[in-house]
């Protein structure tokens, strides 16, 4: 279980996250929704150790993540798919995937086989430069690369951003499939409607604070959420 309590994160004088509490139970899909600048990405980067909190705690199965390096956090079972995908251009699809297993070289080939089964398109394109993939394929590559680390908890930062509708649906199907294999998911999305549809629970963030929380279905039906995030 991931437990975030009293989390504050600053960029210099800017208080991007202002005392946030939430939990992600094992086996859940939890989504954080909210407008641009609400603090969603900052929270995700702090969980994965790229940023440090100025106050509060982040615990994962009773380990204090704030004390661990990003690679120790990956070793603890948490992998992040960053906003904007960040595939390594100039490297092939297969090379990108292998990078995702840098902490576990012994099981890399076995894990690569499993990721190719999950993402047949990545197998087809394994020798191709990652830069030549479409946006949707690059998103799959970024997700496949994270799965190479065999995470127990997958952090997804805006996976549907900038994709054509057909790819958006595919990405949400993949999220459901990964979850069905026993991976817990923390999903950040501006596409609140689809995120709440797949999520067990959600938290609505605004100006660095949690304004509302509930089951995905309850938030989808909430008038304030509908007016602010679902186009009325
Ligand atoms: P988006 O969907 O646009 O990424 P978000 O909800 O993920 O939005 P954050 O990226 O976490 O929001 O940003 C929260 C606040 O922190 C915003 O006011 C943003 O301008 C600010 N911020 C984010 N990154 C930095 C940075 N590197 N330096 C200074 N301020 C930052």
Automatic annotation (TrEMBL):
Keywords: Amino-acid transport, ATP-binding, Nucleotide-binding, Transport. GO terms for biological process: L-amino acid transport. Pfam families: ABC_tran. InterPro entries: AAA+_ATPase, ABC_branched_ATPase_LivF/BraG, ABC_transporter-like_ATP-bd, ABC_transporter-like_CS, BCAA_Transport_ATP-bd_LivF, P-loop_NTPase. Residues 2-232 form the ABC transporter domain. GO terms for molecular function: ATP binding; ATP hydrolysis activity; branched-chain amino acid transmembrane transporter activity. Transmembrane segments: none annotated. The keyword Repressor does not apply. The keyword Ligase does not apply. Belongs to the ABC transporter superfamily. This is Leucine isoleucine valine transporter ATP-binding subunit. It comes from Lacticaseibacillus camelliae DSM 22697 = JCM 13995.
